[in-house]
Amino acid sequence: MTEQPLSSIRILITDDFKDWRRQVLLLFQARPEWQVTAEAADGQEAIQKAEELKPDLIVLDIGLPKLSGIEAARRIRQLCPESIIIFLSQNNDLDVVRAALGTGALGYVHKTDAQSELLPAVDAVLRGKQFVSSSLRGFALTDTSGEGPPHCHEVQFYSDDAVFIDTLARFIAVALKAGHAAIAVVAESHRNSLVLRLKALGVDVDAATQKGTYIQLDAADTLSTFMVNDMPDAARFFEGFSNFIQSASKATKARHPRVAICGEGVALLWAEGKREAAIRIEQLCNDLAKTHKGDILCAYPFSLHIQEDEDAFRTICAEHSAVYSQ
Prior knowledge:
Shape: elongated
Radius of gyration: 20 Å
Distance between the termini: 26 Å
Number of strands: 14
Largest sheet: 12 strands, parallel
Helix content: 40-55%
């Protein structure tokens, strides 16, 4: 997918309810470079206008008259392969989400999350990144087998500690229950809460820790092992994490073990004003995910106001394969 420029983005909005099309228009007014050039009220009309106008972005509902949004997306992908598709739907069935994204669409936003997530979602997909609503995270975390993508580096922007703990716990639980391994890099203030949430999700934390498939690290201590003059030293970073990944992988019984790595070290650096260091670590995480079979989830609190700084938000999103906000 070719990354789209951040100017003169032509958009087609498709929804059979005029009020919903109007709400999307109002949201998009926050970005004057996003120009809604057409609207459609059903699947057939969406295909017709897509073929005629070749928009950069198409917003599609699922339950459309005459032709479903999923079928419309399939046909649009054949007629307009350069158009980016993002679904905005009330349907939260995970099988429907999979089918929708299986058409080649890059985003799926649940309508209840539109107010807070539609703009970040469009920002992400215009950069070729996948975006799935935070309320639908089960979709993104179901495939942790060795047959999945070679690497995944996601970011979660969260509103409070409860969301943060639940997000990390579910990410870890999916990996461990699938017979893989997990490494959590968290601040001391979050360690006990994370363990309790994992146990509530049915994870035998003590057994996994003793076995070596679950490794919990202190974020500040871990940063100190590879930070030099307020910037991460690449050699130290890779040596440290490679050792942990190899150890956790060997502890699993999986034929093709994967390691889920999550944490808040980058958020700690950002809070200290060390933005360049945090971004550099995100880049190193991309390299780490490519060289090891694993998935990485980073987390930043809304309190850092990253989303209010468009340049900062875009920079962070650009380093990730998927962006979530809750």
